[in-house]
From TrEMBL:
Gene3D superfamilies: alpha/beta hydrolase (3.40.50.1820). It holds the Pfam family Peptidase_S10. Belongs to the peptidase S10 family. This is Uncharacterized protein. One of its GO terms (molecular function) is serine-type carboxypeptidase activity. It comes from the Eukaryota.
Length: 258
Protein backbone atom coordinates (compact mmCIF):
# COMPACT_ATOMS: atom_id res chain seq x y z
CA UNK A 1 0.00 0.00 0.00
CA UNK A 2 1.11 3.54 -0.72
CA UNK A 3 -0.61 5.00 2.31
CA UNK A 4 2.25 7.46 2.91
CA UNK A 5 2.02 8.98 -0.58
CA UNK A 6 0.32 12.38 -0.55
CA UNK A 7 -0.41 12.40 -4.28
CA UNK A 8 -0.30 8.82 -5.56
CA UNK A 9 0.48 8.45 -9.25
CA UNK A 10 -2.48 6.76 -10.89
CA UNK A 11 -0.19 5.06 -13.38
CA UNK A 12 1.61 3.24 -10.58
CA UNK A 13 -1.44 1.37 -9.34
CA UNK A 14 -4.99 0.61 -10.32
CA UNK A 15 -6.13 0.70 -6.72
CA UNK A 16 -5.91 -1.23 -3.49
CA UNK A 17 -7.55 -4.47 -2.45
CA UNK A 18 -7.91 -5.00 1.30
CA UNK A 19 -8.52 -8.53 2.54
CA UNK A 20 -10.01 -8.99 6.03
CA UNK A 21 -8.54 -5.74 7.38
CA UNK A 22 -9.08 -4.16 10.79
CA UNK A 23 -9.88 -0.62 9.70
CA UNK A 24 -10.52 0.73 13.20
CA UNK A 25 -9.23 -1.02 16.31
CA UNK A 26 -11.74 0.50 18.72
CA UNK A 27 -14.75 -0.02 16.47
CA UNK A 28 -13.68 -3.62 15.95
CA UNK A 29 -13.86 -4.20 19.71
CA UNK A 30 -17.39 -2.82 19.72
CA UNK A 31 -18.42 -5.03 16.82
CA UNK A 32 -17.08 -8.09 18.65
CA UNK A 33 -20.00 -7.87 21.07
CA UNK A 34 -22.60 -7.76 18.29
CA UNK A 35 -20.78 -10.50 16.38
CA UNK A 36 -20.75 -12.82 19.41
CA UNK A 37 -24.44 -12.25 20.12
CA UNK A 38 -25.58 -12.62 16.51
CA UNK A 39 -23.77 -15.97 16.24
CA UNK A 40 -25.44 -17.45 19.32
CA UNK A 41 -22.49 -17.25 21.73
CA UNK A 42 -24.17 -15.00 24.30
CA UNK A 43 -26.87 -15.88 26.82
CA UNK A 44 -30.07 -13.90 26.14
CA UNK A 45 -30.41 -12.87 29.78
CA UNK A 46 -26.85 -11.48 29.84
CA UNK A 47 -27.40 -9.61 26.56
CA UNK A 48 -30.68 -8.04 27.69
CA UNK A 49 -29.15 -7.07 31.03
CA UNK A 50 -26.12 -5.55 29.28
CA UNK A 51 -28.29 -3.71 26.77
CA UNK A 52 -30.63 -2.26 29.38
CA UNK A 53 -28.20 -1.40 32.17
CA UNK A 54 -25.00 -0.57 30.26
CA UNK A 55 -26.15 0.68 26.86
CA UNK A 56 -29.48 2.41 27.52
CA UNK A 57 -31.31 -0.10 25.38
CA UNK A 58 -29.13 0.03 22.26
CA UNK A 59 -25.86 -1.89 21.82
CA UNK A 60 -24.30 0.25 19.10
CA UNK A 61 -21.01 2.20 19.24
CA UNK A 62 -22.87 5.41 18.39
CA UNK A 63 -24.75 4.98 21.65
CA UNK A 64 -22.60 2.67 23.76
CA UNK A 65 -18.82 2.45 23.27
CA UNK A 66 -17.67 -0.65 25.14
CA UNK A 67 -14.08 0.63 25.17
CA UNK A 68 -15.07 3.12 27.86
CA UNK A 69 -17.32 0.99 30.05
CA UNK A 70 -16.19 0.52 33.64
CA UNK A 71 -17.07 -1.52 36.69
CA UNK A 72 -19.83 -4.11 36.37
CA UNK A 73 -20.52 -3.17 32.75
CA UNK A 74 -16.92 -3.82 31.78
CA UNK A 75 -17.14 -7.21 33.47
CA UNK A 76 -20.28 -8.01 31.47
CA UNK A 77 -18.51 -6.99 28.26
CA UNK A 78 -15.78 -9.52 28.97
CA UNK A 79 -18.45 -12.17 29.49
CA UNK A 80 -19.94 -11.39 26.09
CA UNK A 81 -16.78 -11.42 23.97
CA UNK A 82 -14.66 -13.87 25.99
CA UNK A 83 -15.77 -16.93 24.05
CA UNK A 84 -14.33 -15.45 20.85
CA UNK A 85 -10.85 -15.28 22.39
CA UNK A 86 -10.98 -18.27 24.71
CA UNK A 87 -9.26 -20.70 22.27
CA UNK A 88 -12.31 -22.96 22.60
CA UNK A 89 -13.59 -21.40 19.40
CA UNK A 90 -11.36 -21.04 16.33
CA UNK A 91 -11.43 -17.23 16.08
CA UNK A 92 -10.10 -17.09 12.53
CA UNK A 93 -13.15 -19.04 11.33
CA UNK A 94 -15.74 -19.71 14.02
CA UNK A 95 -17.51 -22.62 12.29
CA UNK A 96 -14.31 -24.50 11.48
CA UNK A 97 -12.78 -26.96 13.92
CA UNK A 98 -9.57 -25.89 15.63
CA UNK A 99 -6.53 -27.21 13.70
CA UNK A 100 -5.22 -28.96 16.82
CA UNK A 101 -7.81 -30.24 19.25
CA UNK A 102 -6.70 -29.86 22.86
CA UNK A 103 -8.44 -30.10 26.19
CA UNK A 104 -8.21 -27.66 29.09
CA UNK A 105 -7.10 -24.77 26.91
CA UNK A 106 -6.31 -21.53 28.66
CA UNK A 107 -7.27 -18.10 27.26
CA UNK A 108 -4.49 -16.38 25.37
CA UNK A 109 -3.39 -14.69 22.17
CA UNK A 110 -4.97 -16.52 19.20
CA UNK A 111 -2.42 -17.91 16.80
CA UNK A 112 -2.48 -20.01 13.67
CA UNK A 113 0.00 -22.76 12.91
CA UNK A 114 0.19 -23.98 9.32
CA UNK A 115 1.79 -27.37 8.87
CA UNK A 116 4.11 -27.90 5.92
CA UNK A 117 4.59 -24.18 5.38
CA UNK A 118 8.40 -24.07 5.31
CA UNK A 119 8.26 -22.08 2.06
CA UNK A 120 6.56 -19.23 3.96
CA UNK A 121 9.34 -19.17 6.55
CA UNK A 122 12.06 -19.29 3.88
CA UNK A 123 10.48 -16.48 1.88
CA UNK A 124 9.78 -14.10 4.77
CA UNK A 125 13.26 -14.57 6.22
CA UNK A 126 14.93 -13.22 3.09
CA UNK A 127 16.51 -9.84 3.77
CA UNK A 128 15.31 -8.31 0.51
CA UNK A 129 11.73 -9.40 1.22
CA UNK A 130 11.80 -7.86 4.69
CA UNK A 131 13.16 -4.61 3.26
CA UNK A 132 10.47 -4.53 0.58
CA UNK A 133 7.78 -5.03 3.24
CA UNK A 134 9.35 -2.36 5.49
CA UNK A 135 9.85 -4.89 8.26
CA UNK A 136 12.17 -4.01 11.12
CA UNK A 137 15.10 -6.35 10.64
CA UNK A 138 16.07 -8.47 13.63
CA UNK A 139 18.93 -10.80 14.42
CA UNK A 140 16.35 -13.51 14.83
CA UNK A 141 14.65 -15.90 12.46
CA UNK A 142 11.09 -14.89 11.68
CA UNK A 143 8.56 -17.44 12.86
CA UNK A 144 4.80 -17.39 12.74
CA UNK A 145 3.33 -16.34 16.09
CA UNK A 146 6.80 -15.30 17.21
CA UNK A 147 6.80 -13.69 20.64
CA UNK A 148 9.73 -11.49 19.59
CA UNK A 149 7.90 -10.26 16.51
CA UNK A 150 4.78 -9.55 18.53
CA UNK A 151 6.82 -7.61 21.09
CA UNK A 152 8.54 -5.46 18.46
CA UNK A 153 5.42 -4.81 16.40
CA UNK A 154 4.29 -1.21 16.51
CA UNK A 155 0.71 -0.26 15.66
CA UNK A 156 1.01 3.02 13.80
CA UNK A 157 -2.68 3.57 13.04
CA UNK A 158 -5.71 2.78 15.20
CA UNK A 159 -8.02 4.04 12.48
CA UNK A 160 -7.15 4.03 8.79
CA UNK A 161 -10.45 5.45 7.53
CA UNK A 162 -8.86 8.92 7.02
CA UNK A 163 -6.26 7.26 4.79
CA UNK A 164 -8.98 5.53 2.78
CA UNK A 165 -10.86 8.81 2.45
CA UNK A 166 -7.68 10.46 1.15
CA UNK A 167 -7.16 7.73 -1.44
CA UNK A 168 -10.75 8.07 -2.63
CA UNK A 169 -10.25 11.81 -2.97
CA UNK A 170 -7.34 11.03 -5.30
CA UNK A 171 -9.65 8.74 -7.31
CA UNK A 172 -7.87 5.59 -6.19
CA UNK A 173 -10.17 2.57 -6.45
CA UNK A 174 -10.66 0.58 -3.24
CA UNK A 175 -12.17 -2.85 -2.71
CA UNK A 176 -12.53 -4.38 0.74
CA UNK A 177 -13.67 -7.94 1.37
CA UNK A 178 -14.12 -9.88 4.60
CA UNK A 179 -14.99 -13.44 5.46
CA UNK A 180 -18.20 -13.33 7.49
CA UNK A 181 -17.10 -15.94 10.04
CA UNK A 182 -13.86 -14.23 11.12
CA UNK A 183 -14.18 -13.22 14.79
CA UNK A 184 -10.94 -11.21 14.86
CA UNK A 185 -11.18 -8.96 11.80
CA UNK A 186 -14.94 -8.53 11.93
CA UNK A 187 -16.83 -7.76 8.73
CA UNK A 188 -19.24 -5.47 10.60
CA UNK A 189 -16.35 -3.11 11.33
CA UNK A 190 -15.41 -2.75 7.68
CA UNK A 191 -19.06 -2.41 6.69
CA UNK A 192 -19.57 0.54 9.06
CA UNK A 193 -16.32 2.22 8.01
CA UNK A 194 -17.21 1.94 4.32
CA UNK A 195 -20.66 3.41 4.96
CA UNK A 196 -19.08 6.40 6.70
CA UNK A 197 -16.52 7.25 4.02
CA UNK A 198 -18.93 9.68 2.40
CA UNK A 199 -19.25 7.92 -0.95
CA UNK A 200 -22.71 7.78 -2.51
CA UNK A 201 -24.34 4.34 -2.32
CA UNK A 202 -25.05 3.25 -5.88
CA UNK A 203 -25.81 -0.46 -5.40
CA UNK A 204 -27.32 -1.53 -2.05
CA UNK A 205 -26.34 -4.88 -0.58
CA UNK A 206 -26.93 -7.74 -2.98
CA UNK A 207 -25.50 -11.23 -3.49
CA UNK A 208 -22.56 -11.88 -5.77
CA UNK A 209 -22.25 -15.25 -7.45
CA UNK A 210 -19.52 -17.77 -8.17
CA UNK A 211 -20.23 -21.04 -9.99
CA UNK A 212 -23.94 -20.28 -9.78
CA UNK A 213 -23.89 -20.05 -5.98
CA UNK A 214 -23.97 -17.07 -3.64
CA UNK A 215 -20.36 -16.27 -2.79
CA UNK A 216 -21.27 -13.47 -0.42
CA UNK A 217 -22.84 -10.03 -0.46
CA UNK A 218 -21.60 -6.72 -1.81
CA UNK A 219 -22.35 -3.01 -1.68
CA UNK A 220 -21.04 -0.53 -4.22
CA UNK A 221 -20.37 3.16 -3.70
CA UNK A 222 -19.86 4.53 -7.19
CA UNK A 223 -16.97 3.25 -9.30
CA UNK A 224 -14.34 3.68 -6.61
CA UNK A 225 -15.49 1.82 -3.50
CA UNK A 226 -16.79 -1.73 -3.09
CA UNK A 227 -17.32 -3.73 0.08
CA UNK A 228 -18.00 -7.47 -0.04
CA UNK A 229 -18.38 -10.39 2.31
CA UNK A 230 -17.42 -13.98 1.57
CA UNK A 231 -20.14 -16.33 2.75
CA UNK A 232 -19.15 -19.00 5.23
CA UNK A 233 -15.46 -18.14 5.22
CA UNK A 234 -13.16 -16.70 7.85
CA UNK A 235 -9.77 -15.03 7.78
CA UNK A 236 -8.04 -17.69 5.67
CA UNK A 237 -10.02 -17.51 2.45
CA UNK A 238 -6.81 -17.97 0.45
CA UNK A 239 -6.19 -21.26 2.29
CA UNK A 240 -9.65 -22.82 2.54
CA UNK A 241 -11.34 -21.20 -0.48
CA UNK A 242 -8.52 -20.34 -2.86
CA UNK A 243 -10.84 -20.40 -5.88
CA UNK A 244 -12.95 -17.65 -4.34
CA UNK A 245 -9.91 -15.57 -3.41
CA UNK A 246 -8.56 -15.87 -6.96
CA UNK A 247 -11.96 -14.99 -8.41
CA UNK A 248 -12.19 -11.79 -6.35
CA UNK A 249 -8.59 -10.85 -7.17
CA UNK A 250 -9.10 -11.31 -10.91
CA UNK A 251 -12.28 -9.23 -10.86
CA UNK A 252 -10.42 -6.45 -9.10
CA UNK A 253 -7.34 -6.55 -11.34
CA UNK A 254 -9.51 -6.40 -14.44
CA UNK A 255 -11.69 -3.64 -13.00
CA UNK A 256 -14.83 -5.76 -13.30
CA UNK A 257 -17.78 -5.76 -10.90
CA UNK A 258 -17.92 -8.66 -8.48
Amino acid sequence: MFVHATTPKRGDSIGILLYNPILNVYLNKNMAAQFAYSHGFVDEHLWNDFKANCCKGCVDPSNCDINFLRGECRYKTVGIVDVLMSQRVYPFDIYRDCPVAQENLEPGEPCLYISGAKFIYDYLNQEQVQKALHIQLMNNEWKICSGIGNYLYHTEYDDISPILAGLLKEKIRIMIFNGDTDALNIYLTAQKIVENLGQKLTAPKQPWLINGQIGGFKTEHGKLLTFATVRGQGQLIHLYAAEIAEYILNKFLNNLPL
